[in-house]
Structure formats: C-alpha cells, structure tokens
Amino acid sequence: MAGGAIRLQKKSTRGSLLSRQWGAPFLAAVLSLVFVLFRPPAAEGGPWAPIIDAAAGPGGVLYVLTSEKGGLFVSEDGGRRWKNLGAGLPSSLLFSLDVSTGGRLFLASFDELLTSGNGGSAWKSMKGGGGVKRFFPTSGDTLLAVFWDSGIHWASSGNGSFEKSGGEDGSFQVLDVLDEGHGRLRAAAFGRGALFSGDGGRTWSPDDPGIENVFPLALARSSATGTVFAGTLEGGVFRKEEGSPWSRSSEGLPPFCTVQALAAGEQGALWAGTHKQGLFVSSDDGRTWNLFPAGMEKEMSVTVLVPFGKGVLAGTSSGELYLADGEKGTVTELLPSDPVVGFARIDGSLLCLSRSGKVYVSSDGGAGWTPRGSAGGKALFLAAVPGGRLFAGTEKDLLFSRDGGFTWTSIPLPEGTVFTSLAGTAGGDLFAGSAGSGLFRSSDGYGWQRVGDVPGDLVHSLRSHNGTVIAAGTDAGFSVSLDGGLSWKNGDVIYGIFSLAFDGQGRLWGASRTGLWHYSLPEGEITGAQTAGFDWSPLAYFTDLFQGEGNGLVALLGEKAVRLLPGKAAGSFTLGETNLSNVRVLSSFRDAGGALLLGTERGLFRSTDGGASWSEFGLP
C-alpha cells in the first residue's frame, strides 16, 4: 500500500445521536473528567517521557511512542538499545502508533497522518489526516481511521477514500479497537459500551446484551480461547466467551479498579494495566488476577501493554518502561539511549561522555565508537584543555583524567556550586561556568575563585578560541576576555545570552531571546545579525548555536535544527533547512575531518555535509 495514495476526506456526518441512557451535559462532563484523569502527566524522574503507545513489528522489533514531540523509538534487540526515530518527524503532538503485519508504520499526529514502509527511516504524509486519533489496516482488507470528533471511518485498501461508518455515528469517544480476524472488529466506545462490526468496520452496532459498565477503556482477545476482554473505568475487567454474554471478571483486582490497558500473551496469559494500582496477570482466561510481580508496592499507572516473547512490554504514565517475563516472574526496566553530554579531542583520539559517565572513543570522526573507562556519577560535560588535560563535570564534583579518560580523580568543588561548563587557556588557567554562582577561575583545577569582573550568576555558555579568547554568555549578556582571562569586557543584552559559538574565522556570535548577535573582536561592539528566510518574534528565536561548516553556524530554532549560511553582506546569514528536529542538544563538536557531531538527550547525531542532513549513531 503506497502511503501517499490515501486520501482522508470525511464525508458528511449525520446529526449527533445520544444514548437514551446518558444526556449530553452528563456525557460531556464525564468525558472531560476522564481525559483529565488519564492524560499523561509530566514525567517526574522517569527515564522516558510518559509512554502513550507501543507496538511490536516483524522479527521482534519493538516501537515505543512517548508524549514528547518526536518521541518515537525503536529497538531491534529486545529493548537493550534504542534508536530515536523522531528526529525527522514534524514537531507535532503524537497520538498513536500502529504496525501492519507487513511492518508498515502508521503514526497519527495532531496535524497529519504519517506512514513509513522502511521502519521509520523515511515518512510519507497522508494528506488531510489531521484530527485522527488512530489509524490502522484491518485483517478484513479495510482501513480504519478513528477521528477525535466523529468516530470511526473506513475505506477499502484499493480505494483509499474514507467515509463515515454506518450504525453508530461517533457521538462517543472511541478509545480502543480490537481486530478479531476475518473482518470481525470491536470498539470501546466510552459512554456507550462495546461496539461490534462483522464487515471490516463498514457498519457498527452495540453489543446486545452489552457490558454492564458502559465506560470501556481497553480491549483484548485470547487467541487460545477466543474470549474477549474489556478493561473499564472503575469497574475492573469484563469477559465474553464465544456465544455468551459479557460477565464481570475482576477477582483479585482491587475494588473499583480502573483497567486502562489489556494484552493477551502466549500460552493464554492475560495482562491488565491499571490506573495507579500496577500490573496484573491472569493465567486462567481472565477469571482471576494476581499482582505482577508479586509483592509490588510501587504506585504505578500502566498505560501501554504489548505482548512480547513470554511476557509483555509495559509502559507507564510516569516515564518507566518494563519488560515483564511471565515465565520467570520478573520485571526488567528498559532504559532509553544514554544522553551524550560532551565531546573532546585529546592525544589524537575523539572522545565522548554519556550522562551515565561512560567514556567512548572514536578513530573515524564519530562514525564508530568503543568503550573507554567510566567517569561515574551523573555527568554534565566533557572538556579537553591545552596541555593534554581532560576534565568531566558531574552534579557533585569535577573529575580529572591524566590518561585520556581511562581513569579519573575527583576534585571537590566550592561548597554549594555545580559546574556546568569548562574552558582552558594556552597559559594553563581554567574557567568554569555555573548555574547560579557565576564564573570561576583556577590555575590548577583544585582551587577556584569567583571572577568578580564578570556580571551574571547564570553562565549559559562558555567558549574558548585558540586558548586566548574566552567568552561567556550569561544572564547579563556577553563577557569576553582577549588575554586569557586577565581582563574582561562586558556587553549587556536584554534577557542575556543563551548560547555562544565561534565561526571558522574566529568571529563570536550569541543567541538570545531578542535575536542573533555579533560581538566584534577586539572592539567589543554588539550588532544584530540579519537572517534571510527568518522573521524574529517573541515565540520564534534561536536558542542554541554551534560551529558549522566554514563560516556558517548550526542553530536550534524552536524544535528544529537549521543552518545559518553566510550571506553576501557582512554579519548576515541565509536560513537553510535540515532533517533534524525534536532534539534537545547537550553538546557539540566539529571534528578536524569536517564531521559535525551533536550530543542530545536521545542519542548522538552526525553530519558530514555541513549540517544539512544528520544520521544517528548508537553507542555500544
């Protein structure tokens, strides 16, 4: 099926028909309440953002979708290592992910529907797809699109023109759809109960008799027994054997338990994810339930369940991802890619440092990496300074390595201070920026004093050029030294300078909330830079700058990386597009061979064409 050939054009919808049981004001209030209750909160300490969807593809490939923009990840080794697929996606809210039996991906976002036939490396837009909550191909040779405002629509695979399904008219939110095979489908209609279709989704009718609880949230079916299950709001689980009515099946679940995720695994195991009450498993076709693992006391809201191997992949609203092994009775936490917080070149080797403190080395400009020691702690930056000295900063101390990153020595910091950046001079002096205590200076890395000539307590950015020019971007503006830190010249900029970068000619640039600025050397004059193709606004400004190819720069504009290509006039640029978006950059490096490297919260990216295109490279 060609992704670009599908048109999502909704035909006219009949007037809203409300159930006899529920009036419009009551239903609206309940719907508002449920979406407040189950909207993923901001992650507090979880390694992932809140997890909103997941899927398994052919060959055991796992996909995870999180609530952050571009939050799509893939693992080909059972969750041990993850690759971020969202760096090439538009910066739009994501709603759902589905994978066909052939491995085609379907991604629903706020603005459009996207499809990929190569595992997420490239995407095609399915025009007109905005407002779709979920989209997937069925086993009955139809395509289904669940719209937020008008329920279920269908199209034949060969036609691709969608129309409203017959029967129920979309007055109720459809929260889940279950494909039972051979064109048989069920839908969880919140406030209406379970709907059934026997013709691939062309027409729908309520189950009769229906579920006692009319607020279903999730559906599943056991392939071993054919029993269908429904998780409900404060009603636990209901089950329906073939040819029998729905019946309550919540023995072992907490009273008034909300079951918001269901999955049927191997050998008849059934899994239930609850709101704030953890993960449960049933081995007797859903008749009785047990907390998994036994004795688990942590409050946990399981939002996503996907059968995998002999267990299930479980994602939570607080940003944890687990692999539950039903045979061993164990739970293993799966962690995302280790963020890359710093790069350095020392003794001819290119090094990088991950957030967990692991050091890696590359001999080919960042295309391949091998492990080299560990700095330990929660690392914040890596810096090589003149004289072959290597430093790493953590949340607790400063680490020093004499052997290129194999072993490290801890250096205590001034009380109450955390260093966030470091730069050195040709004369051997060190300067360190902090997030609240200003700029510090040291002659040996052990004794540190506050630099009183530099205003501003928050040092956003610290850069050095040729070991002589030291520049700090602070909450007060520019602070620049031309003599290795002996004297300083300050230039005020409203809202301060977020990020600094020297271009290939050694010219200094700074980004602030008010624009892009050039700090002339040695004069110290601050002038605004003009960028063709970009119009500044209070909501659109450059937040990060990095050295690009030649005299160009790479910048972050909102949630997308762009190139700033030198213009004809002095101090001017032209905006250039890239394929990198939805990233939070923590570090950057321009290798002598011409490669550009960006370390991000979700992996390491490399460009060999001046920043026009970027590829992710995983660390071992």
UniProtKB/TrEMBL annotation:
GO terms for biological process: xyloglucan metabolic process. InterPro entries: WD40/YVTN_repeat-like_dom_sf, Xyloglucanase_GH74. This is Ycf48-like protein. The lineage of its organism: unclassified sequences, metagenomes, ecological metagenomes.
